[in-house]
Specification:
Length: about 80
Amino acid sequence: MAVERAGAAAAQVEAFVASMKGTGRLKAFNGAYKAAKAAAAARGEGFMSYTVALSRLRTQIGARLAGGGNVYEPGLMAEVFR
């Protein structure tokens, strides 16, 4: 039962990320990633890879979907990039 729920939740997250591609929200995420990475470089700091950032985005989306909250509430990008 738990494995089925986890699979369903993962499918819901992936469907949401796919919908982000169609609405331009993934493009906005990519722009925010590039800006955060450039800011870190300007400070002489390293920054997470895109793969890590995308994984953290999926985690945040999953948490918000599971909690019944608004996925796009303020702070999503801050949580991903902190």
